[in-house]
Amino acid sequence: MVEKAKSIDELLAQIDEFEKTIRGLGENVAKLKQKLLENKSKYGPDISAWPKEA
Question: Which residues, at least 6 apart from 14, have a Cβ–Cβ distance to it below 8 Å?
Answer without folding.
Answer: 2, 5
